[in-house]
Amino acid sequence: MKLDHILVRYGELALKGKNRSAFENKLKENIIHALKGHPTARTKKTYGRILVEINEEDPDELIAKLKHVFGISSLSFALKVPNDVEEMKAGALQAFHEAGGNPKTLKIKARRAYKHFPIGSEQLAPEIGAHVLRNTEGVGVDLKNPDVLIQVEVREQGTYISYGKIEAVGGLPLGTSGKVLLMLSGGIDSPVAGYKLMRRGTKVEAIHFHTPPYTNERARQKVEDLTQILATYGGTIRLHVVPFTEMQIAMKEHIPSQYMMTVMRRMMMRIAERIAEREDILAIGNGENLGQVASQTLESMNAINEVTTLPILRPLLSDDKQEVIDVAHSIGTYETSILPHEDCCTVFAPTDAKTKPKREKVSAIESSFQFSDLVEDAVTRTETLAITRENKRDQKMDELL
Amino acid sequence: MVYLDNSATTKPYQQVVETFQEAVNQYYANPSSLHHLGKEAEALLHKARTAIGDWVGAEASEIIFTSGGTEGNNLAIKGIAMQYAQRGKHLITTKVEHPSVKEPFVFLEQLGFDVTYLPVDEEGRVSLQAVKEAVRKDTILVSIMSVNNELGTLQPIEEIGNYLKSRTTTHFHVDHVQGVGKRKIPTKIDGVDLCTISAHKFHGLKGTGLLYVRKGLDLAPLLHGGAHEQGWRSGTENVAGAVAMAKALRLTLTQAKEDPLYLEHLKQRLLTELQLIDGVVVNTPATNSAPHIVNISIPGLKPEVLVQSLTDNGIHVSTKSACSTKLFEPSPVLMAAGLGEELASSAIRISLSFLNRPEEIETFIDTLKQSLRELRQVMGETTT
What we know:
The complex is a heterodimer. Chain A is of the alpha/beta class. Chain A folds into two domains: 5-167, VC0802-like (2-Layer Sandwich), CATH 3.30.2130; 179-400, Rossmann fold, CATH 3.40.50. Chain A has helices at residues 20-34, 59-66, 85-99, 121-134, 189-199, 217-234, 245-254, 257-278, 298-305, 321-331, 334-337, 344-347, 359-366, 372-380, 392-400, and strands spanning 5-9, 42-46, 49-53, 74-81, 105-112, 140-141, 148-155, 158-167, 179-183, 203-210, 237-243, 283-285, 312-313, 383-387. Chain B has a seven-stranded mixed sheet with strand order 2-8-7-6-5-3-4, with helices on both faces. In chain B, strands 9-10-13-12 form a four-stranded antiparallel sheet, with helices on one face. In chain B, strands 1-11 form a two-stranded parallel sheet. In chain B, 49% of the residues are buried. At the A-B interface, α6 and α15 of A face α1, α2 and α7 of B.
């Protein structure tokens, strides 16, 4: 007898009423995708639960992967036994031994979802608990704060016995909340914003403004690398690389330097909106944070927002910088984000940017030059890459190692 | 041909050579160059570093690529001594270290450092007690090899690391050049701050190696220049060499994992046969020794003569360690172990690798017996 299942819990999903089944199916699909490298692992859906049969796989590796699947709130190791009290007792004892860490106190929590089972939960728990106590030394019961909590769940098909609770990432299953176009600069914030959006179930496509030769190949590579890291959480991610040099040069000619930043953001927003429309994307996302730098004051956001009617999602809006950095570390984008490659914002950044631009003033300044053709041109010349967890270049290099 | 001098160097694996060839042809650009090719080379180097980090249980930033064991040992020892000299000038090592450890310490003594050379027991092993007694308030470095290159003795690295881990100003360097694939890489041991590895000892290429430097530690560089390898080791990176090392490490550790007792079985077979030959004294400790080194002495016989006779018959073994064979004097390692001048000046070392087959052991034993018979006849000795 062995705890040969992983029990997947998904708190928030259970609240979703009649969409529930669709959510569960999506989650199951995502789990299967996440466990692709583990051919003998089997993912099954039962009522209110997803179970992963471990079979030949390394349980810790499975847990490590499942912890990052959006929508999963927690995980436990579990064992399935027939609906028989003796089997349940033996299973609970096994679970107690497997829990490890030399536990001194125990709690059994029983739940009888299958009402035809003759013994009620209030009777089942003490009976199973007594069996564990009889077969161990120096272990007591603690109903408030036990070292090991064993859950016994009686269902029609059998009883699941599980212990422990491994916290997972939470959120909603990827692909259950539409698609967002993420403005990805290469800094610390935007990948974190993308991650947070994906954690809420949205698929993400990324858009990056590239200014060759003023920004080099590495700056672009960095963005591709960041996209690839995000792809480890979000499956394949499409990256739209917008050639922005011509626009940048035209702006430099026509726009006073204090307004350069605001106008540039507005141009980016216009291009992003066009791409979003083309790709059936309903919102734009970015890593903006209120009041952090010149372009992110409320006045600035107000002036930039004017050019689009799409919702702009700013998941980092109210985060402190350190919180963002912490997430960047935990999702593995930080090290890449801090590589010192110029992006278009730093190359063309004026030192005297207005921190409180006025909409009317910006509009007036913008109208001094014909930008719509440049927007159009940038959209048509945009290059779209599909970036997966593993790309060909990486595979080729990995074969050498 | 039977090659039994794997502690001197190993034959590179064919896949390692192929990897090197492909990497050097395709990723020849300078990783510091900004163009596409440079970027590719940089990406590959980073991958090699990460892969090696994964294998040895370190972060990529803790791996410094070097030209091999001698450089790694020099960088660790002089680098720590120079960097932290203001904290103290006392250094500890043992009497049985490889010259690439011993000589930097001798050099540092000339610069005013105080070095304690710990004694060893008759198996060539240093004791935790000796380390404890030698450590002082101003000790900034302890450097001890993990596997002795002449005797194969395993040093108590775990115990010493465990003792030193609480001493924040005493850094611990482990020369693991002889240990890869034979003993757990010490980077994961608490208390180990620096660890030297050389690729050609595990079927990689000469001129490649690494020094593990635990995060948070600083080193004074030996080579100043363009601040490569985080400023600790300047010089355009040997991308193909690093990639080949990653490959060699992977192949070796995989083999060691799949067949952990392969070398030990060969060694036991060898020892069983050797013990039956008259006049052969086994110097390698019976327990707590590496699975690939067997050191024997044949008193009364010049080892150079025996090595010559064996090599004429297609068997390649070593006297002492290969890098110091030009010095015709008793082995300082065996002398330090108190084995006496007779044994210390008549030792030969047989060292194995995963490429050796059991039947090669038989061939070696037969040839050895034959050689001994001939040599003893010529030299007027009789076999009893």
